[in-house]
Structure prediction request, 249 residues.
Amino acid sequence: MLVGFLGCGVRGILPSRDNLRSKVNGEGHANGDFFLSFALSRLYVILDAALIREPATEIARQLMDAGVRLLQYRAKTAPARETLDVAKQLAELAHKQGATFFVNDRPDLAYLAGADGVHVGQDDLSVEQARAIIGPDRWVGVSTHNRQQFQRAAATLADYIAIGPIFSTTSKANPDPVVGTELLRELRPLTTKPIVAIGGIRLERAAEVIEAGADSVAVISDILAAPNPPQQARKFIERLNAARPAANH
Ligand code: TZP
Ligand code: MG
Prediction:
């Protein structure tokens, strides 16, 4: 399990595996302090099978070449075996590039694929159940959509908490109500765990989300549906790295 740690206003993730250190925050951190860079990458790209026009491994390769170091595979409708097959290839590729790779929804598939972690939602297995399957050495992230869910997640051993949709999104079926950067600002002081902001985050507003308190910004459509996804990812990384984190960060 990855234990969040606290000190000197610094928040991060303490890995139990030596090699994890090289897997986090590949784009570096403006501050240059090791502990500050010891956190989730500011850009978290979700490879949604519904939006990918090329094989997932090909787009992943392009994105990692562009500097992306945190990826998730999200396949809502594919059969489990197919998801596992793709996830295995993505995990292998990510590890060759020093990137961190998550599987959405399914701790069993994340475990079998050799992924670094699993991302669970409110209707999936709980953080504890996911942890029981995936083991103590991998990451568990959890989605939340309001203050109550966020507070509950903060009391678990989740490694990060996602909150959203921050803005309006079309990538998710039946999305919860938009929470805005206002809720992010309110939730920021409630936990030392890394916060991932998700939902409708476009390049133009990405920095604003970091400034409101997110450690990382998860993006599907504004990268995958862009005319040139790796070029768009580069622009995100540039803007996110230039953003100033919230004061209570
Ligand atoms: N969870 C909350 S919003 C969302 C998910 C998976 C979709 C994010 O996709 P996009 O295209 O970046 O809005
Ligand atoms: Mg889910």
